[in-house]
TrEMBL record:
Name of protein: Protein-tyrosine phosphatase
UniProt cross-references to InterPro entries, sorted A to Z: Ptyr_pPase_sf (IPR036196), UCP029416_PTP (IPR016919)
SUPFAM superfamilies, A to Z: Phosphotyrosine protein phosphatases I
Length: 110
């Protein structure tokens, strides 16, 4: 049985390599609405309350991203499903290894 359309949010630090790659991989999948953001002030798209409330499922690349979300958005994250992917900041946008890591890490949740 198909799930209803899920709103999926990918988060890394600057939203330039990891989370943007994840968004790019999944954005054309008709089962999901996908967005990405970053936790740093220098992020391409900075995380905000509206994005967190929009998301049914939030994937963060590292533990410190989840900690930052909970610290800065306690109300929005109280009941949120936040999954830590454990993908370090060692890749560039759309690196093949990064794509593989994201797909493998995310697959069990989608």
């Amino acid at each position: 049985m198909k799930n209803r359309l899920k709103n999926i949010l990918f988060i890394c630090s600057r939203n330039k390599w990891r989370s943007l790659t994840a968004e790019t991989i999944y954005k054309n999948n008709s089962d999901f609405n996908v967005k990405s953001a970053g936790t740093e002030n220098s992020a391409r798209i900075k995380i905000n309350s509206k994005l967190l409330v929009w998301a049914n499922l939030i994937f963060v690349m590292e533990k410190h991203h989840k900690e930052k979300l909970i610290l800065n958005f306690p109300d929005e994250t109280k009941n949120a499903k936040i999954i830590i992917l454990e993908i370090p900041d060692i890749y560039r946008f759309m690196d093949n290894e990064l794509i593989d890591e994201i797909r493998i890490s995310v697959s069990e949740y989608l």
